[in-house]
Amino acid sequence: MYDYCIIGGGVIGTAVARELSRFDVKTVLVEAENDVCVKASGANSAVIHSGYDPLTGSLKAKYNVQGYKVFARYCEELDVPYKKTGTLTLATNEEENRTLKNLLKRGKANGAEGLKILNREQALKLEPNLADVVTSALYSPEAGIVNPFELVYAQRENAENNGVKFIFNFIVKKSSFGDGITLTSSDGKIVTARSVINCAGEAGGDIARLLGDFHPIKYAKGEYALFDKAPVVSRPCFPTPDEKGKGIAVAPTLSGNFFVGPTSVKTEKCDTTFDKETYQKLLRHSAKLIKNVGSVRMLTTYVGLRANAMSGDFIIEKGRNNGVYHVIGISSPGLTSAPAIATELVRSFGLRLSAKFTPKRSRIKRLANCSTEDKNALIIKNKAYGNIICRCECVSEAEIVEAIRRGARDIAGIKKRLRASMGKCQGCFCSHKITAILEREMEDL
Questions:
Q1: CA separation (Å) from 397 to 197, 366, 436?
Q2: Whole-model pTM above 0.90?
Q3: What is the pLDDT of residue 392?
């Protein structure tokens, strides 16, 4: 019997797994897919927010501010790319100027640091491509951007290295209470634990019902367009938010690309379709903020499904049955909040620290980031580094093999770990090669 079973392998579930691995307990994480980071954690804005947007007194405000203050150290421990860029929230008229002043007050009340209102001239010094209609901006210097895929994979790897077991393709269909809590999967697999932590994301409401609680979830899809590498913006630029959310942003990624999005469209569970008119909508909205977006080549589109609690706030609470905990409805700023949520939840259990815990994890050595001298040294040591599979992003066979050994089980897992097939050709020249390597390496697993 396990001490803790976590349901869900997104950013929250893997953060909780990593935090539990600090302690002298036996932990398992079950995930419905064949890998972590498959759903919302693999399709989001990658922005580490500073905390001016959530309502003061909410769990979102609390964990947002706690989260961003530890994020740099957290990413350093896990060797995850992170950059403190700051963000700009842009106003285009007097009403929006007043809204920015209210957000400034809210941010200060929430504990966000360094916030200030900039006039147009000050904002242009930070972002020269601001649209002509922009009149002022709320500058949040403590915000940043992260590689969200790498964060989830790092949390998994570190938790796994510290003793947490991960079981994939485990779709929870039944629970029973007795000597512990027994979960049964759709194909008859069984896991029993003294406590179950529901971090199931979009399935969080369904899992809550199986565990004896009622937490209905409403869904909204966020649609994005990803563009080629170009210096259009150097930090995330948001419109003035409204009742629907933060709005359609223009934001850079750590890889040098930029995206426009997300929309916020009420939808049914599992709807990740991208409407044919959405791209034009994204361009129209981005043009209100930033010039020159439409002149850059659009590479692809993607959609993330947001699982929102009916209250609009996070759900972090004990269930009716002993040993049940729910951490669901973790929509934005969930990515920022994950380390703080995991820390506070797990510390509330009063567990004994493990003397064996190792906080460090190292990412896969990327050929694209190496000097010529280092590249040559890697190839001498391992000839597979000299076999370039993805030309657009300079990804070698050796890196793909390492990603498979760390848990990648399909092209999507390779793509998110290494950027293979994320470049200009979007996999046209490398997907078949990646598939061949997957088939070869999976035979030995």
A1: 38, 11, 11
A2: yes
A3: 95
pLDDT in tens, 334-389: 999 999 999 999 999 999 999 999 999 999 999 999 999 999 999 999 999 999 99
* Phi, psi dihedral angles at 42 (to 5 degrees): -100, 5
161: number of Cβ within 10 Å:
14
441 vs 445: CA distance, rounded Å: 7
Tell me the β-bridge partners of 226: 259, 300
Asked if the model's pLDDT at residue 271 lies above 90, the reply is no
Nearest to 228 by CA among 24, 4, 423, 29: 423
Judge contact between 3 and 327, C-beta under 8 A: no
Burial class (CB in 10 A: 0-12, 13-18, 19+), 214: exposed
Geometric angle at alpha carbon 81, from 78 and 83, rounded to 5°? 125
Question: What pLDDT sits at residue 345?
Answer: 98
- pLDDT per position as a tens digit, 422-441: 999 999 999 999 999 999 99
**pLDDT band at 47, cuts 50/70/90?**
very high
Nearest of 266, 357, 361 to residue 306 by alpha carbon: 266
As a whole number of angstroms, the distance between CA 388 and CA 195 comes to 46
Catalytic entry in 49, 215, 285, 326:
49
| Cis geometry, peptide bond prior to residue 54 (ω within 30 degrees of 0) | no
Chain centroid to Cα 312, Å, comes to 19
Helix (H) or strand (E) holding 12: helix 11-20
Mean pLDDT of the chain: 96
Whether residue 445 has pLDDT greater than 80: no
Q: What is the DSSP string of 73-102?
A: HHHHHHT--EE---EEEEE-SHHHHHHHHH
Tokens of 349: 């259990």
Q: Which domains does the chain have, with CATH numbers?
A: 84-144+218-307 (3.30.9.10), 367-442 (1.10.10.1100)
The Cα 249–Cα 87 span in angstroms is 10
Residues 6+ apart with CB under 8 A from 160: 166
Distance, C-alpha 128 to centroid of its chain:
28
The answer to whether residue 49 is catalytic is yes
pLDDT tens for each residue of 68-86: 999 999 999 999 999 999 9
Total residue count of the chain as it appears in this document: 445
